[in-house]
Each structure stands twice: as C-alpha cells, then as structure tokens.
Protein: Dihydroorotase
Organism: Georgenia soli
Amino acid sequence: MTDYLVRSARPLGGEATDLLLRDGVIAATGADAAREAGSAVVVDADGLVALPGLVDLHTHLREPGREDAETVFTGTRAAAAGGFTAVHAMANTTPVADTAGVVEQVWNLGREAGWVDVHPVGAVSVGLAGEMLAELGAMATSAARVRVFSDDGKCVADPVLMRRALEYVKAFDGVVAQHAQEPRLTEGAQMHEGAVSAELGLTGWPAVAEESIIARDVLLAEHVGSRLHVCHLSTAGSVDIVRWAKSRGIDVTAEVTPHHLILTDELARSYDPRYKVNPPLRTAEDVEAVRAGLEDGTIDIVATDHAPHPVEDKDCEWPAGAFGMTGLETALPVVIETMVETGRLTWADVARVMSTAPARIGRVSDQGRPLTVGEPANLTLVDPSVRRVVDPAAQLTRSTNSPFAGTELPGRVMATFLRGRATVLDGAPVAREEVGA
Ligand SMILES: NC(=O)N[C@@H](CC(=O)O)C(=O)O
Ligand SMILES: [Zn+2]
Ligand SMILES: [Zn+2]
C-alpha cells in the first residue's frame, strides 16, 4: 500500500504540520513525519485544512431497488468526493432494509465499492409499514452490526411501536432515529405551512407536525431510559424542545441538514420541485434558529439527508415531484458558508458536528478520531479559499436534484483518505481499480 506524506496541512485549522500515513494509520506527525517518510508519495497540503474524515448519519444510497437514482458505488464515490469516510445508508430501499439479509447486502456492496465505510441503517418496522417491529436484534448481531434504526421517509407514528423500539435497542446500545412527521397533520402536504403556502395555494406541512412528534418521543425516551436521535430537525420550535429535553438529561441527539441551514420556503415560489423536500424548507426565522441551535450544541450534528431522485421524478409539476435533495458533495461547502464564514463555528466545531459526534451517535468507533499518531488515517483535506459554482452535471452522484445548482459556495475537498488509502486526490476520485478492498 502506498504511504503518503501530507505536507503542511492545518489540522482543525490550527498550526501547519506534516502527517505520515502508513499501514492505515497516522504513523507520524511534525518533523518525525518527514524524517520517517522514506518513499512516501508527497501530498502538498499547504493552505489546506485537515479534518477527520466526515461521517454522514443520514444518506440515501437507493440500492437495492432504485439504482437509476443512485447505487452504493456512485453514492459512496460522491461521499468520498464530499470529504466523507463513512456514511449510514438509510433503510427505505426496495426491498426495505428490515432483515439481516438486506443490511448485510448493503454492507457488502459498500465494502466492495471501497470508497467509504457503509453502515446500513435498519428499519424499525417491517416494510416501513409502522405496524410490526422489524428484526432489530438480528440486524444488530449481523455482520453489518447495525446500531441505528429508522423508518426514515416515514414516521414511526404509533407511540406503542416507538416505545417498543426504544426499549428493544437498549440491549445493543442502539438508537432510534426518528423522521418526525405526524402523518395526519401532513396529509397531502406539499411545502411548509405559512404565508407562502397560503399565497401559492399549496397544502401546508405545519411546524407542529414535526414538533409534536419530537415532544412525544423525547418523553418516551425519558420514560424508558433509551436513546433517541431526531432526524433533519427543521423548526425553531423543534430546537426549543430538544434544548428543553437535554436540560432534563434526556438522552436525545439531533441533526440538521445543510439545506435547512440556508434555504427557505420562499424558494417554492419558483414551483421548481428541486426545492421540494421532507421536512420542507421553513422560514428565515427557522433557519436562524437551527443555526443558533447548531452553534450552541442543542443540535449535535449536520447530516446530509442526501436523497437522489431520477430526473423524471423532479422534472414535473411541483405536486407530482418527489421529496428530496442531493447533498453529499455540497454539505461541507454549505456548512463553511453558513457557519464558518459567519464565525459561528470553528474548524474544530466542524470536525465535531460532521465527524466526531455522528460517529459517536452511530457507535462507529474507528471514525471521528483525532488526527494524532496511532489513529486510523481517516481524513480529508479541504481548501477553504476556493469558491465554486455548483454544477450537478459535474457531480459524482447519479442524480441531478441539487438545490444548489448554479450557486457559488466556498470550499473544495482536495483529498480524502480511508484508512490511509487515497479515495480522492487533487480534487478528483482515485480511479476505481486503485480503490479495491
Ligand atoms: N428527505 C426527503 O425529502 N426524502 C427522503 C426521505 C426522508 O429523508 O424523509 C427520500 O428518501 O427521498
Ligand atoms: Zn426523513
Ligand atoms: Zn432521509
């Protein structure tokens, strides 16, 4: 395996140093790195920020079933290009990832592709139908070692089923990741319920449909003493509820997506389904509240909710459009734009919310580690000084439904290393043949 000498990188935005990547680990840093480098390939990282490899707790890879939108291979290559070294693959595939067989299939596809570690999420209910508990234990003890369980795409609406799932996952230190959407309050919903939906005459998805489920679930988690994770939190009220729950000592974590950190429901005026997503884009006040929640730690992580859809599901009238946006290749740029360049997060905070904390929530022990000697060489090198216009056609995801098409965003991932192996170099993925397990 090739050794790499990363020259003059700034770990977490700090002092420049050299890093020697050998045998899958960070073998040396500082002056030792150059001294011990031998024939290592030199990667010039002057001016680049080194971050622990990013970990996404919420990715839709679409395989099995919707390989026209994305495959494990194309989605994980896009992830590597976005600076990720691990992703959690959501269970809303066809068939649903609700058995040990399906999660092992996805886990194997991830290993064969070799771009990032793929951690399958297991469904909470059989077929995401919200009726019968899936085989959580079998998925947890399978080769895929599932720790995150979610019916994402659907809400676990039945409080009894939610309670039983929360109780069950305690046995293997798992977590239930809830897509908080009260189904009765969102029947036929097309966008955020508010002034814009009223003007456009589109059926609204009210904030209370999210907040009422989160309020219920934090109380259930407290009642049974279990661990809850809130997917794609999007409203000011949700931030308040999570803040209150944490102040009571409830074991809850929460994520925000890049798009909810920057986009608002005003975009629906375009009637362009690129802006149609679940939960919907909210108001400017909500955007400010989720930024503040991420800044003060109420919101633990940024997760992409990368949701690729084929052109025919987006190139249509708004009501017929699918919910979801791609996000793996724009997540870090959006976080830099909204949180770093505004002075609200440091690079060390970015490492926490995009790597360390998601790894901890997903119980992934070899990711999100410090960039110190002896640690696994999972890292990404970012050039924060570049600004680029997003071009979906040039992205690596198989789908083009980016809400940022034509938008200029800061930051470029120049290199990504998975256990010391380069998956991205010079800003481009390393050819498939060279990847291999
Ligand atoms: N976020 C979305 O709008 N869509 C997701 C499902 C989900 O995350 O709820 C999808 O699978 O397309
Ligand atoms: Zn969801
Ligand atoms: Zn999702």
Summary: The mean pLDDT is 98.
